[in-house]
Specification:
It is a single chain. The protein is of the alpha/beta class and 430 residues long. The protein has 3 domains: 150 residues, 3-Layer(aba) Sandwich (Rossmann fold), CATH 3.40.50.1980; 204 residues, Rossmann fold (3-Layer(aba) Sandwich); 35 residues, no CATH class. The protein has a 6-stranded parallel beta sheet, with helices on both faces. A 5-stranded parallel beta sheet has the order 6-5-4-7-8, with helices on both faces. A 3-stranded antiparallel beta sheet has the order 2-3-14, with no helix packed on it. It is globular.
């Protein structure tokens, strides 16, 4: 773990690198662009080749669709304890989602026209659920579960399978419980392209949701226009900001929890207390030795973790806002005051007793959150993102007459006389 204090040489230069922009490398951009072109031009044949190349699984076109028998077998294989946990999570997700759904409304404007908005669920959406290093059962719930709460009639899920062509039983059970209507055993940028563009065996969707690796995220970015997306949620990351009140064991546990995702995960720790920093480092070493994914964790600790002793909390908050973390753990005195100063985090966990893992699995808000600095522009996944918004305008004789003078002036200024005439004829006819 890279460790610096605000008095150390190189501290300012390192802090400057934490002002991130979620921009892909040229290599990733070009590779994904090529995959999208192949899927667009060759459809199922390209998917067959990519499944063999990247996942070492050999399909015939269409064989990647999960069958009813596979869902039934998965349900029988999943333990009662797992089913209970999935049910509890979905209950919280549904309750949270229903409170954030948008509702139709209308009012009369200054000229008396009736204006408003209507919100309907998308007809067909796609959710991407990573399944490489770990079966992300919770991600199935925290994407498809929101679609179900929004009453989306068709939900297509894409998740990679193993070389044996199977998807984890608990993941399949969770997808079904969350209301998914179809599952395809495909992953990577090629799965995103298939959902967006469609193939002979896969009907395209209206919007794509869910996290993934850098290739999945880049595919979503490049396919905007062919389809809409939720946000750009990439590899997991956490930033902890704590003063002397922080519990070192809890902080270490939160950092390790996100590090075990592996890959390009990023973990960071900011504190005003040098003593706390040393205690956290010691706790990380002690706890990491007891964890099953120790090798993956050590790789993240060596490659993409940092700990900084900041001058004061104001500086720590400025760094946190520049970093725009996916998860921010805030453990400080006067937490309500400091909470108001955090502007760019995807999700904030307040106090020593608020583990990020509860948000990951159970609390209710989706854990699909912006990463790589995307929190400056995007918010986390919400139920209202599964709704299509349409504005409604209705005028009567009185309101159209009152609107005419203003419309006529806009038409004159912009040189669009047909616009003005389209209102005038209605007043003249009256």
């Amino acid at each position: 773990m890279k460790t610096l204090t605000f008095r150390d040489p190189g501290y300012a230069e390192f802090v400057a690198t934490l002002n991130r922009r979620a921009i892909p490398s040229n290599e990733v951009r070009d590779l994904v662009a090529g995959i999208i072109v192949e899927v667009a031009q060759r459809g199922d044949d390209a998917l067959v080749e990519y499944a063999a190349k990247f996942d070492q699984v050999h399909f015939q076109p269409g064989e990647w669709r999960v069958t009813p028998d596979e869902f039934t077998a998965a349900s029988r294989a999943v333990s009662a304890e797992t089913k209970k946990a999935i049910k509890a999570s979905l209950k919280n997700i549904t309750a949270f989602a229903k409170r954030s759904l948008r509702k139709d409304w209308s009012y009369r404007n200054a000229e008396g026209a009736k204006v408003g908005e209507r919100f309907l669920p998308f007809d067909r959406v796609g959710v991407y659920v990573p399944g490489g290093k770990a079966p992300l059962v919770s991600t199935a719930l925290m994407t498809a579960g929101f679609a179900k709460a929004a009453k989306v009639p068709e939900v297509l899920a894409a998740t990679p399978c193993g070389p044996d062509g199977k998807v984890n039983d608990a993941l399949l059970y969770a997808l079904k419980a969350a209301g998914v209507t179809e599952v395809i055993k495909l992953g990577g940028a090629q799965a995103v392209a298939a959902m967006a563009l469609g193939t002979a065996s896969i009907r395209p969707v209206d919007r794509i949701f869910g996290p993934g690796n850098k290739f999945v995220v880049e595919a979503k970015r490049q396919l905007v226009g062919a389809v809409s997306i939720d946000l750009l949620p990439g590899p997991s990351e956490v930033l902890v900001l704590a003063d002397k009140t922080g519990n070192p064991k809890c902080i270490a546990a939160d950092l390790l929890a996100q590090a075990e995702h592996g890959g390009d995960s990023v973990i960071g720790f900011l504190t005003t207390s040098k003593s706390l920093l040393q205690q956290v480092i010691t706790a990380i070493e002690e706890q990491a030795a007891q964890l099953s994914r120790g090798e993956i964790i050590r790789e993240v600790l060596e490659k993409s973790s940092f700990a900084l002793v900041v001058k004061d909390l104001d500086e720590g908050i400025a760094i946190a806002n520049a970093f725009a973390p996916e998860h921010l753990s805030l453990v400080v005195e006067k937490e309500n005051k400091r909470l108001k100063q955090i502007r760019t985090a995807g999700a904030i966990y307040v106090g020593n007793l608020s583990p990020v893992a509860v948000g990951d699995f159970l609390a209710g808000p989706s854990h699909t959150l912006p990463t790589g600095g995307g929190g400056r522009s995007f918010s986390g996944l919400r139920a209202d993102q599964f709704q299509r918004r349409t504005s409604i305008v209705k005028l009567d004789e009185k309101s159209v007459a009152k609107s005419l003078p203003h419309v006529a002036e806009f038409a004159r200024v912009e040189g669009l006389d047909a616009h003005g005439r389209s209102v005038a004829v209605r007043v003249e006819d009256r």
